[in-house]
Design brief:
The chain is of the alpha/beta class. The protein is 51% helix and 15% strand.
Amino acid sequence: MAYQQVRELLGKLIIGYLNALRQTDLDKLNLLVGTYNNTIKSQALEDNDFFDCICDLVRVSTDSGYQPLSEYLEKSGGILYYFSERGAGIQHKVLFANKALPVIDASWGVEEKFLKRYAQRRKVPIERLSAGFGMTFKPLDTVDDKWQALEQDFYLRIHKETKAVEFDPETIPAILVKKPPILSTKSDSGSDISADDIKQMIIRIDEQNRRQKAGDTTLLHLNTRNSLIRQLRGMSNSETFDLAVTCIYYNAVTVNQHYATPENAESIFINNNKAYAKMIQLAQTLLEEQQTRAQLEAERDSLKQQLPDIQLTDYRSCFFAFDYKIDDNFLLLDAIQEYFKSKNFGIKVMAPAMGMDDLNLHRDLHQQLKQAHFWIAEISNNNLNVLYESGLLHGMGKPLILLCRMDSTEMPPFDIYSDYRCHYEVSRRGGKVRFIWLDDEMDKVMSTIKRMLPKFDTVSKWIEN
């Protein structure tokens, strides 16, 4: 009895002191309430007079930091918006702030109870927000096969139910939220509880327990507006794809929780390290390719500077490099010239073996190379002279067609695989030689040659004397 009287007396003294500070020293009152913020809120729930005295001064945690409730209500338009889902403060603040809603974090302590009491006594509207509600996630109008496949890919890799939806901000690729509870359905039998009601209740309890034990209490939402997610949608499965999926999931776990379990933390580090290592590897590969390309371009430019300034022929021409020791190649030369004639291309085939304009063989070779509009090289037996000429041709940057017999077992000792290779067969019958598939292969490349040389059609056709 005496304890209760002393308690009531102390309460009146404290309230009286706070009211006096409100009149004489408001800064000191704000400092006092801010210092003992959580304790004051807990005590205020036990005394309505004390509650009414301090409720507008206590601080609440919002997306803009700690602020008094009175200041918060000015920004929110007089409505209390809050969320109470534990361990999801960061993502809730990001999601709802993007909708221009100032949100209170009531996921700890007596915050939610205090806000409800405040709404009741101050007659203020209050609204509990949840990331799982429709106001945050917009279902897709059409979930096509690719989105369904991506949902399945995520599920197979992270063993988590996944759903493709739209939400803001689009910079966030994925959000992990709790699944809504399994709600009971209202009984049709009035206030009486039937045996079927009890059965359904037991089924719901079992399902909730199964979810809890299996860790199946959350749902991963993929943001279809996010550029990274859209890239993954059309990407084939690979190591890079697996790493991206795993990292996106664990980043969502990190944002969803104030803390991560030791297992989650280890997985986050392992998969992020793999992703970083993959990025470094790709960057190094790209750098090496750039350095190689720069070296090749420098060598090509140097080669161009060494060559004399010789104009292209005023008629359509190509240079043919081949091994003179193989008789079939001379017949191949005739076959190529006949092909150009039959197609009415008006192209002259040039080769050192067909005549020289300069007694200096090396100089004459370079002159013919430089004069020709494009080149053809027969590389079936890796003849050194042909490979040398192919290297010069490749370095000049003009279109180069490579001819190779299908029965050839030789591999070029340097990288000219980037140029188109025509494969053909040699057939002999009654002393005659035919080059099978040659015309078909040449048909494929000549349209490309014309596109690579846009002024080729304006060059005069060669007319055989």
